[in-house]
Design brief:
With about 100 residues, this protein is mostly beta strands. Helix content is about 10%, strand content about 50%. It is built from 1 helix and 7 strands. Strands 1, 2, 3, 4, 5, 6 and 7 form a 7-stranded antiparallel sheet that branches. The model has no long low-confidence stretch (mean pLDDT about 95).
Length: about 100
């Protein structure tokens, strides 16, 4: 399964993923997949870095080409209040977005 397919599944099912990004192991809650400058990105809440839970969970943008060892987990996530689905940055470039009705 490609990273794109795995992220689509994670977003659709509202399941967390584990991965390595810039040599840092992380657990993310991916909320949206979108294109920017002919590249694909995901905006996701960082839940863990280096195996340690983050107290200050925040939404980050991740270039898909930098994602390594991507794995789907069974851990569900809730849509984060910081995620703005109507944000201008997603207008016309969204490939897939988490739905309040999903999972």
């Amino acid at each position: 399964m490609t990273n794109n397919q795995l992220l689509l599944e994670a977003i659709a099912l509202k399941k967390c993923v584990t991965l390595v990004y810039n040599n840092v192991p992380m657990k993310l809650a991916p909320h949206v997949l979108y294109s920017k400058h002919s590249a694909v990105f995901t905006d996701a809440v960082i839940l863990e870095k280096h195996g340690v839970a983050r107290r200050d969970k925040k939404l980050g943008a991740f270039h898909l080409s930098g994602l390594n060892d991507l794995q789907l987990t069974d851990q569900p996530f809730d849509i984060d209040a910081a995620f703005e689905p109507a944000a201008e940055k997603y207008a016309g470039v969204t490939l897939f977005m988490v739905s309040a009705d999903a999972g």
